[in-house]
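> Could you send the 4Fe-4S binding protein prediction when you get a chance?

Sure thing. Input:
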Amino acid sequence: MQNTGTKKGSPGTRYMMILIGIALFLPPLAIIPQTAGEVNLCGSVCPRMFFILSPAGILEGFRNNMQAMWFGASLVGLILLTTFLMGRLWCSHLCPIGGTTELVSRGIPERLKTSFSFLHAPAFRYAYFIVFIAGMLAGIGGIACKLCNFRVVPFMAGSLFVPSYRTYLFSSVGLAGIATVSLTGFFARGGRGYCNLLCPVGALDSMVNYLSERLGFTRKVRTDLSKCNGCGKCIGECMVWALERSGNGKIKRDQASCMSCKECIHACPQEAIRYGRL
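Output:
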């Protein structure tokens, strides 16, 4: 494996970028949504709402959604292009929703958290994505929208300032949304259970990351098996359980789940993990 990547970096840089993402997208600042005439990530800024299609006139509905929600659709396009070339940097470094659940989760004692590593994440993720799309086409997509973490987390962040957000959060649907985000986010080991299992943008993102892995010009987090001694310290740091021991005792990485957070790079005592090209 040609060494064309970086080995170490500052973990604090990623957390700083997460805080910048929160300031840009979430209340009370919500700088990016306000530039598009919105107050939060619902509406035209949402990177998921353009998926909501009517079973009648799918192509026309998709075209109309792309026009009405061009900002969110453009954001998804930019995310996927970045992932193709440089790995899942949006999810790990800038996403205000996943970043919030991760930061909150880090402040909760480990004994109170649930590990979802018993699930085969890619199979669960893509099965849910199919159900998500099918629900949209069946006309019940609004259910997923109301429970969506891109709705719940911004409403929680802005609840001190907007009374209608508090009304929603204390409704039966709002409480169900809080429970979903809490179980799969705040009280999940690593804080990224929702990201790894239920996020439709994450499902598309992970597929792009997996497909572009072996292209020589793309940058990913990679393991040099010639240096790996199988100690497993990186496994304990992976918040999306993308690492496991293979039959030869070395660490195997699943790029369909790897979030390019680089936490494993900082954990590896052998400097066997790097971020870069093949």
